[in-house]
Amino acid sequence: MKISVVGTGYVGLVSGACFAETGVTVTCVDVNQSKIAALNAGQIPIWEPGLDDVVRRNTEKQRLRFTTSLGDSLADADAVFIAVGTPSGEDGSADLSYVLQVASEIGRHLDHYIVVVTKSTVPVGTSRLVKQAVQKELDARGAKVEFDVASNPEFLKEGNAIEDFLKPDRIVIGTEAERAQKLMEKLYKPFLLNGHPIIFMDIASSELTKYAANAMLATKISFMNDVANLCELVGADAMLVRKGIGSDPRIGAQFIYPGAGYGGSCFPKDVKAIIKTATEYGHSLEILKSVEVVNERQKDLIFNKIRIYFGGNLKGKRVAIWGLAFKPNTDDMREAPALTVVRRLLEHGAEVVAYDPVAMHEAKKYVGNSVTYSQSAYEALKDADALALMTEWTEFRIFDYDVAKQLMKTPAVFDGRNVYDPAEMKAHGFAYYGIGRKTES
């Protein structure tokens, strides 16, 4: 089989590379000439464990190639996947301009039957708009070419995307044409051999499934964070409460870790989009509105703890930040809780020294050189008045108390991911502040 994947961002590049891994001939397309040139030179534009190996292997075997020409990529293609960005507009709605631009261009070049698949996260009704955009261009050309549309949302976790794609929990496909369904079954057959379920449904249900899934996960996070804040007030330990409720199979242990809030490219954007969709249909998603409110409040929590610790005066205070990416195993800084903390500290006159294993180059795009970037975690602690842990990278899990105490001016730790043990911190002379835990100082 031959497919085209339009967009070489996170979803497009991972999808194209993993389809090629199963023997499909894949052409990835992007309008960014420098990005395509870099990919052809073996340079991967995003940091994702294992992705560089998969791309290199399939490029060498000529199953994966990169181009700026969408028209050329469609030659003999059985399907074309639209995997471009859908950023949030000012009103929270998903910006579909890139998706529809691609759909129009497909219509300008299409000369044989193809399935146009929306891989981008899009609101209900987008596939209908994609179909109209393709057909409009065909009509303008006077071309009678058959095509079908399908929705195939992705469920990739950044930091584990290759495994997620090759060994999916489920494959969701929305289509209303038997011909398109058979083609998609053939394309995904290698994944079905290992027993991974494929779920066919109508297109509207498929489009909504992606948003509902991310909204549910965001809800679990905000729920646990709200409970954690209550734990601090009543003297309970949120980590013990988490264990107590997470052992119930109806609830489960995933996504109920108290922390400094969620971020990334999906949850914030998708929660806003599903709320906006509901509003357009005259429905108010009150729970998800609260999820947003709780998350925005949570992002300020670590900053507020630091401010209170220093009596409201942060001028001249040196704060070390461990972790900048919104989660481990990625360099994605979009909506990262660390950004909120950094900006608030800077606004109040603090000096910020930060370290992240892979995301510092991305962080510069957001906060520039207003932050000092360290080459190691412990270098960042030199003369620090406080440490704020914002991303739970593995290398931060073991804390060298002696080294940290020698380096820091003030032994105060603000643990935005509840990585450390409060009692151990206190025993080694550190003031410790976590999320939903008893203050130890």
Helix-strand blueprint:
Elements: E1 2-6, H1 10-21, E2 25-29, H2 33-40, H3 51-60, E3 64-67, H4 70-73, E4 79-82, H5 97-109, E5 114-118, H6 126-141, E6 147-151, H7 161-166, E7 171-174, H8 178-187, H9 189-192, E8 198-201, H10 203-234, H11 238-246, H12 267-280, H13 286-299, H14 301-309, E9 318-322, H15 337-347, E10 351-355, H16 360-367, E11 372-373, E12 386-389, H17 401-407, E13 412-415, H18 422-427, E14 431-433
Parallel strand pairs: 1-2, 1-4, 2-3, 4-5, 5-6, 7-8, 9-10, 9-12, 10-11, 12-13, 13-14
Helix pairs in contact: 1-3, 5-6, 10-12, 10-13, 12-13
Write up what this structure looks like:
This protein is an alpha/beta fold and 441 residues long. It folds into three domains: 2-201, NAD(P)-binding Rossmann-like Domain (Rossmann fold), CATH 3.40.50; 211-297, Orthogonal Bundle (N-(1-d-carboxylethyl)-l-norvaline Dehydrogenase, domain 2), CATH 1.10.1040; 300-433, Rossmann fold (3-Layer(aba) Sandwich). The chain is 44% helix and 13% strand. It contains 18 helices and 14 strands. The protein has a six-stranded parallel sheet with strand order 3-2-1-4-5-6, with helices on both faces. The protein has a six-stranded parallel sheet with strand order 11-10-9-12-13-14. Strands 7-8 form a two-stranded parallel ribbon. The protein is elongated, with a radius of gyration of 24 Å. The model has no long low-confidence stretch (mean pLDDT 95).
